[in-house]
Specification:
Blueprint: H1 7-12, H2 19-23, H3 33-37, H4 40-50, E1 65-68, H5 75-83, H6 124-137, E2 145-150, H7 157-169, E3 174-180, H8 192-198, E4 203-208, H9 212-227, E5 233-238, E6 250-251, E7 259-260, H10 270-285
Parallel strand pairs: 1-2, 2-3, 3-5, 4-5
Antiparallel strand pairs: 6-7
Amino acid sequence: MRAGLGAGRLALMRTYAELPGLMTQMTGDEKHGPSATSTLDVLWVLYDQVLRVSPDTVGDPGRDRFLLSKGHGPAAYYAVLAAREFFPESWLAGFGSAESRLGYHPDRLLVPGVEIASGSLGHGLPIGVGVAHGLLARGFSEPRVYVLVGDAELDEGSNSEAIVYAGAVGLPNLTVVAVDNQSSSYGWGPGGIEAHFAVAGWSTVRVSGRDHEALASAFRRVTAAGAASAGPQLVVATVEGPGALCKTGRECRPSGPARTVGPMRVARTAASAVLCITRLSDMKQG
């Protein structure tokens, strides 16, 4: 959130274009590179344009809450938090080491700005429902709760219960962002992910998870819907599948030429995946 930050701090903050450089500092969790980079643009838009929280307000009861339920690939999350100065960039290089605060799953007791410890899938949305309900019960109508989930994570039954409950009680301060990279075990059938939420009383919208303007517009729309007490909201952010990070079927590497790999091979590091996404963006623009 830019509001409330001094001009000096804003001038020092990193830009979106600098995120790949931050991600290259984190190694050791290569298998979750696609999981991390699938969330990169959503995270950036939330922290840059939407969330009413800053390094100075992480303890403010009136802050917005962001819950990363898809916590098993946190490299993009850490990069964005560092870029927004929630913690020093120097922490990134120690990612995953025994003495580091930045584990392979984020820990709210160790990482400033993190609201929940996550990574065990299926927990974030039920927790988010409880947080949203608790805020209203305490008389806090302005703070909003945003929960980021993965499409495959929604296979967990705990999510179905949370979706039905939130719709039934009509939580206007709850927004779920489902990053859809076509990883669900059985698919979603007619109507996609949003049909499962809509039938429970949620308002829904689907946009490109790589289009910052479309994402920001979607968040504005759902915030307005929440202000009108229209119940909880879902934003589905569509991104490329993990096997399609490079349309050419070639692996993007941090340095050196790309090399041909099998169809099931994914980028070897989080930084590699970012470069693949950049290449896809260049292809679309071309």
